[in-house]
C-alpha cells in the first residue's frame, strides 16, 4: 500500500493497494514511485498495473473526515477502504513505505463506527523507501496518485473551486493556492482543522491538525503493497 495527499491543504488523503503473490510475473516496465513519473506516464501505467496484479483498489478519506478524526486516523480509514476492494483476496502481509505503521488500529475496531463490520487488517511490515525498492508499493503509489489527481482536477472544474487552481497544484500549498486562500478563505474541500492561510477571518484563530506534528512519518505500503 501507499498513500498520497497527506500533506495537502485540500482534497482527500488517498491510499492505493496492489496485491501480488510469488507467481506474479515482473511488474510492468516503468513502474516506480509515482512522484518520479510524469502525469501522462502514470496514467498509461494504470491499466497495465491492473492487469498485472491479483487485485487492486484506492480508498479515500475526505476533508470532513480528516477534520473529525485527524490525519493519521484518516490514513487508516482510507487504507481500510482500499483493502475492502480486494474482493476474494485476503493478504497475508501489508508492506508500507517508511518506518511508521499507520494502518493498524490499536483498538482493532472500525473508526467511529464507519467500518465496524470490516475484518482486522493483515500484519503490517514497514520498509524505508519501499516505494523505490518494491514494485507492488510503487504500483500502489501510481494508482493512488492517478485517482486522487483525477478527483482534484474534476473539483477544480467547479466554479466555486477554480480560483484555487487545483488542476495545477492538486491541493498542495502552491503560491496560487495560498493567494486564493488569502483572498477567499477555505472552500468545502479544504481541511479546515489545519492552519490555512486566510481562514482566521472565518473561524477565528485557526487550528493546527495533528498531521503537522506527524509529518516526519513516511508513506506506507504492502505486499498487498
TrEMBL record:
InterPro entries in UniProt: RNase_HII, RNase_HII/HIII, RNase_HII/HIII_dom, RNaseH-like_sf, RNaseH_sf
Residues the entry annotates as binding a divalent metal cation: 2-3, 97
GO BP: DNA replication, removal of RNA primer; mismatch repair
Molecular-function annotations in GO: metal ion binding; RNA binding; RNA-DNA hybrid ribonuclease activity
Cofactor binding remark: Manganese or magnesium. Binds 1 divalent metal ion per monomer in the absence of substrate. May bind a second metal ion after substrate binding.
Keyword Nuclease: yes
Enzyme Commission number(s) of this protein: 3.1.26.4
Pfam families for this protein: RNase_HII (PF01351)
Locations listed in the record: Cytoplasm
Cofactor(s) this protein requires: Mn(2+); Mg(2+)
Span of domain RNase H type-2: 1-206
Chemical reaction(s) catalysed: Endonucleolytic cleavage to 5'-phosphomonoester
PROSITE patterns per UniProt: RNASE_H_2
Gene3D superfamilies: Ribonuclease H-like superfamily/Ribonuclease H
UniProt GO cellular component terms: cytoplasm; ribonuclease H2 complex
CDD domains the UniProt entry points to: RNase_HII_bacteria_HII_like
Keyword field: Cytoplasm, Endonuclease, Hydrolase, Manganese, Metal-binding, Nuclease
Statement: the UniProt record of this protein carries the keyword GTP-binding: no
Its job: Endonuclease that specifically degrades the RNA of RNA-DNA hybrids.
Family named by the database record: Belongs to the RNase HII family.
Protein name: Ribonuclease
Biological source species: Ornithinimicrobium pratense
Phylogenetic classification of the source organism: Bacteria, Bacillati, Actinomycetota, Actinomycetes, Micrococcales
Amino acid at each position: 500500500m501507499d498513500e498520497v495527499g497527506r500533506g495537502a491543504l485540500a482534497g482527500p488523503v488517498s491510499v492505493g493497494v496492489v496485491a501480488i503473490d510469488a507467481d506474479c510475473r515482473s511488474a510492468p516496465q516503468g513502474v516506480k514511485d509515482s512522484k518520479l513519473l510524469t502525469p501522462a506516464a502514470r496514467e498509461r501505467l494504470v491499466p497495465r498495473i491492473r492487469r498485472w496484479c491479483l487485485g487492486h483498489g484506492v480508498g479515500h478519506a475526505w476533508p470532513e473526515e480528516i477534520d473529525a478524526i485527524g490525519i493519521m486516523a484518516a490514513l487508516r480509514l482510507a487504507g481500510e477502504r482500499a483493502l475492502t476492494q480486494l474482493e476474494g483476496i485476503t493478504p497475508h502481509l501489508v508492506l508500507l513505505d517508511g518506518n511508521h505503521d499507520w494502518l493498524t488500529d490499536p483498538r482493532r475496531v472500525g473508526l467511529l463506527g464507519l467500518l465496524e463490520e470490516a475484518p482486522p487488517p493483515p500484519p503490517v511490515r514497514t520498509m524505508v523507501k519501499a516505494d523505490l525498492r518494491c514494485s507492488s508499493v510503487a504500483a500502489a503509489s501510481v494508482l493512488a496518485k492517478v485517482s486522487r489527481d483525477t478527483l482534484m482536477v474534476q473539483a477544480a472544474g467547479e466554479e466555486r473551486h477554480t480560483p484555487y487552481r487545483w488542476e495545477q497544484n492538486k491541493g498542495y500549498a502552491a503560491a496560487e493556492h495560498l493567494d486564493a486562500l488569502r483572498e477567499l478563505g477555505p472552500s468545502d474541500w479544504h481541511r479546515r482543522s489545519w492552519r490555512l492561510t486566510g481562514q482566521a477571518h472565518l473561524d477565528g484563530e485557526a487550528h493546527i491538525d495533528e498531521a503537522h506534528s506527524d509529518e516526519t512519518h513516511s508513506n506506507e505500503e504492502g505486499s498487498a503493497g
